[in-house]
Amino acid sequence: MSTPTQPKNAAASKRIRPRGEIPPRRSSKASPGAPRPRSSAGFWLGIQLPPGTAEREQLRIERCLHDHLVDCGLCLGGGTQSTLYVEPETASRELTLGDQVELADWCLRETKALQIAISSLTSVSLMPPVNLEVWRIQRWDLAVLSVSMLYRLGRIRATQYVEILGGFVPVYSGDLLT
């Protein structure tokens, strides 16, 4: 005679990680080797960490970023050492300015980034194009804190968030962070 199994309590099974421990990588819905249909557009993300950031901290940020993108239905479609190309996980999903603002706001909350740069939507995914419009956010800009709080409280929209913090400006070097 079998006894019914009891569901595990999710809160009790969740392990609290000590500060600085690297979280395990969550798997995305699609297997890494499976080809994905290309979407029409994605955007480039550049994160500048403070000089001397430990490799362990960089790895933790990379894994947390990957997990956050999976939760948002996004994925990394390529990139270089300093910049990453973010695209939708499925071809049916279109990216919006709201996706870019949400990612920028998450980076400000969850990383120690000094500067975040996000490009306008582009279909070029091999490397950042030479002519590109980029929105740069400096962590220590006083407007960032207030605008970020207003956005999280629902008092301003994504378009206002970007406009208040300077908007997208043309960059002719192909480097998002300089």
What is the H-and-E element order? HEHEEHEEHHE
* Unreliable stretches: 6-14, 28-37
N-to-C span:
69 Å
Percent of residues in beta strands: 15-25%
Number of domains: 1
How does the helix and strand content classify structurally?
Answer: alpha+beta
SS elements, strand count: 6
Helix content: 25-40%
Quick one: overall form? globular
Order of adjacent strands in the largest pleated sheet: 2-3-1-4-5-6
Mean pLDDT: 81
- Global Rg: 18 Å
- Number of distinct helices: 5
Summarize the main sheet.
6 strands, antiparallel
Describe the protein's architecture and organization.
- The chain has 178 residues and is α+β, with helices and mostly antiparallel strands.
- It has one domain.
- It has 5 helices and 6 strands.
- The chain has helices spanning 10-13, 55-71, 97-110, 142-152, 158-164; strands at residues 43-48, 74-79, 83-88, 115-119, 132-138, 169-171.
- The protein has a 6-stranded antiparallel beta sheet, with helices on one face.
- Helix 3 (97-110) crosses helix 5 (158-164).
- The model is unreliable at 6-14 and 28-37 (pLDDT under 50).
